[in-house]
Amino acid sequence: MSELKISRRNFLKLGGAVAGASGLTLGSRRLKAMEQDLGGRDYSAVTGAERKAVPYTCLTCNIEDGGVAFVENGRIVKLEGNMDHPNTRGKLCAKGNSGWLHVYDPDRIMTPLMRTGKRGEGKWRRISYDEATSIVAKKLREVIDRSIREHDPGIRNEIVFKWGRNRTGGAIKRFMHALGSNSLVNHTNICESSKKVGLEPAWGPDIESCDWANTKYILNFGSNILEAAYFMNPNAQRCVDGVVGNKAKIVTFDVRMSNTAGWSDEWHAPYPGTDAAIALAMAHVIMNEGLYDDEFIRDWTNVTPEQLKAHLKPFTPEWAEKESGVSARDIRRIAREFATTKPATTFSYRGPCKHVYGSYQEAAIQMLNVITGNVETRGGYCLPRGMGWPQPEPVPPKPPVPSVIGAPPIYPLASHAVSTHAPYQVMAGEAKVSVWFAYYDNPVYTYPAAHVWERFLKDEKLVPFYVSFSPYMSETTELADLIIPDVTYLERHDPESMPGGLYPCLSIRQPVIQPLGGTQEFRQTLIDIIHKVDPDGSLGIKKYFAFKNPEEWMRAHFDNIPGLKEEGGWDFLKAKGVWPIYGKVDKETAKIVDRNGEEVQPDYQLHKRELSAAEMEGAEVGPDGVIRKDGHPIGVRIRGRNYVGFGTPSRRIELYKESYRKYGFNPLPTYKRLPSRNKKPDELVLTTYKVNVHTQSRTASIKYLAELYHKNPAWMNPKTAAARGLKDGDLIRITSPIGYMVTRVHVTEGIHPDVVAVSTACGHSAYGRLAQLKHKEKAAEWAQGGDPDITHNVWWDDKGVHPNSIIPVQVDPIGGSQGWYDTVVTVTKAQPGDKYGDVVADFEKAVKAYEHQLRYAYTGDLHRANHPEVDIDWDSLPKPEVKAGGH
Ligand SMILES: Nc1nc2c(c(=O)[nH]1)N[C@H]1C(S)=C(S)[C@@H](COP(=O)(O)OP(=O)(O)OC[C@H]3O[C@@H](n4cnc5c(=O)[nH]c(N)nc54)[C@H](O)[C@@H]3O)O[C@H]1N2
Ligand SMILES: Nc1nc2c(c(=O)[nH]1)N[C@H]1C(S)=C(S)[C@@H](COP(=O)(O)OP(=O)(O)OC[C@H]3O[C@@H](n4cnc5c(=O)[nH]c(N)nc54)[C@H](O)[C@@H]3O)O[C@H]1N2
Ligand SMILES: [Mo]
Fold first, then answer.
1. In this structure, are strands 184-185 and 159-163 parallel, antiparallel, or unpaired?
2. How far is the CA of 106 from the centre of ligand 1 (A)?
3. Ligand 1, atom 47, residue with closest C-alpha
4. Which of 337, 424, 627, 798 would be 635's cystine partner, CB 3.0–4.6 Å?
5. What is the pTM of this model?
């Protein structure tokens, strides 16, 4: 039970202070009605009959909240949160609530399209799904036949699959591995891969799950918990539970006053890319002042307190103040507070990790939880709690030849690919493309040096055949040769499990209505393509796609899971949307409670689960305590007990990362001064950020959301503006090493004086009429059409300006992640002739910038220069294996 019981009414009041006054304005009668029924039912305003309710999993961003769709006369009329979902607890955000507009977007593509003009010219021939899948199968068969003829399985890597958001539960991997290609390229290096690579070698999983609700102290490094962030909705709810319900203190480090920073007890604006300096200095204080958890460090890490003290010696608060601008006094004070308030947890998202050397930043932040013994405690820094599901057998094996695009060899630690590099690798002849697939992917908008992607995808020599599965005419889709539109997330099947809280669960996506206008699920399209590539099964590919239809594919995932099977397997999930059901949402506390009204407690101390006698049978305990079976570590013996431990070779938390050392990086958390820290005084660092009502490139076409937020002036500190003679609303030019953009300035105290910040959801040059403010034009003939709001009721005339073409590629040599927040720019008044919305970017300069940043890779000269402290024989570093020309 939470220590402090507060009534739902108080809760709403306090919550209302956060979200605006909405909670307070509700009349008391309506409030009563809400209390009678928390959700799950809805009634027709016309007939009064109960509406059909179908559970689903949201995908308006990627947090996978549980939802229920209400359907009337075959049309989705309303969405709300699924009360059975333990992490979402019946709530959706603004994007989730307006998600049904994705279905009825008047500019949605309703039929497969074959290009008739030049790439990007917008001339299309409407074709059937059958014709479209036959065309693709023929192209794929050509590559496969050539690979067979030439006895070269590596040729199949010329089939490249690039995706952005992929919640297919392994469908794409199955498709590609069945075809024999390893050229799978995700978007994770523009998202948060350096966070993952900062964490995985240390404790196994790629993310933490904080026990926000039960904590007393939250140290937030660069995450916009209330507006964006991973698990935004569930994290924001539990963060409010903790801060409001449990009186936890929250301290936020952000270069900008995000709504989370503004809501925090303290906001500190560090110089960009210096979070690691602050975290290391805090660790220095905690170790030197004896505030650490000696037993936890000795038992559960691969270093000793003495080693840590020695390593942390140079990272004093005074040194960190010089690097970060945050005062040594504050750093000391917060370090002491964090170490002495129990339980406490850090949280971090993209602010620290989206820099060159972002992996070090993440590792330094994680260390604070480890040395204070807050790991896996109630109210602490916990392992994520996801749930797996089996892949239907047979599963295609991983193809034999590695792909240079799929795993660039000069980034051996970047376990989540380095997708920004793909076009440059192909342009340089390091890899070859025959067929390019794009799924949920919009690099011509969402990637750094976006204009390079445009040029690349337009080049028929480099990309001979290009297929997009998008239901929307995005900046990237409009360049395709063939579009085979997917359906929206409310019309298709997907398996899901997101560790959005401390209650692990499975959930699903299912068609809440039949796909509109004869459109077809991507999953069905994959089945059709494979059946046409290998019609008689003689290639050995067809057997991996022996699904009658997408629903049977889901059944194969879910019907044999112990526990779920007994409750009905897939059919249970269809009815409830989520499994298991932990209890009910309590009307007073909004917590999950059991039949007796007691809060359902999550499990803690997962690393201390003791191995059973059966698990120990045949196992050996090494002198280091590691318990191994068949050569694999399965646990660790500590003080005579056999624990399962963490997902590392030593089964302890590896603050010392051997894999980093192997490639000449510092094995212990450290700080590297970035070039952006050495900028000239009159230069600024460009930061980009997300806003609460938009998702990446995907929501500018959603009328409710576009009405709320459609322009993105650049934030600038008053001091910085004054030095340039700028006042709020002035037209400015932001110039980077590869181009410039012309926008307006928003002068605000809520930003570091050395930073200029531009949000990322606006300024489209495609994505339908509304996103481009071409709403007076008629809908295209391939489009759904039919929303008079868009032609008649749009009152705004500013669509914002998008910065991505002026941001160069620059990746973390460890995690391979794009350093979005490292771009040094100059900002001046706009120049004569400049027009609002101008974005001018140079191709050659972008390629040069790409080549320059390669020098940070472990094979490059800047790598050596930056790591004089690592005591290794540089010539003995393993060499990357690059095979030119396609493999
Ligand atoms: N509304 C909304 N929510 C989303 C998404 C969305 O598109 N819209 N997308 C989802 C996805 S894919 C992701 S990856 C997450 C991202 O979630 P977050 O990482 O929480 O959000 P971002 O806006 O990417 O960046 C976080 C903050 O980093 C700050 N920052 C920049 N540089 C620094 C720095 O050097 N130090 C510090 N301390 N802070 C810095 C920025 O000002 C920004 O406020 O959000 C998810 N949730
Ligand atoms: N400047 C800057 N840029 C950034 C970031 C930043 O911090 N700064 N952060 C980024 C982050 S965190 C992320 S995760 C990336 C995301 O970037 P992307 O992975 O490119 O993702 P989205 O914009 O979410 O969606 C891509 C495309 O999917 C297609 N699509 C939409 N709905 C569907 C559907 O139902 N089915 C199919 N098949 N396709 C669909 C649309 O064409 C859409 O344009 O962008 C990033 N871009
Ligand atoms: Mo992301």
1. parallel
2. 30
3. 228
4. 627
5. 0.94
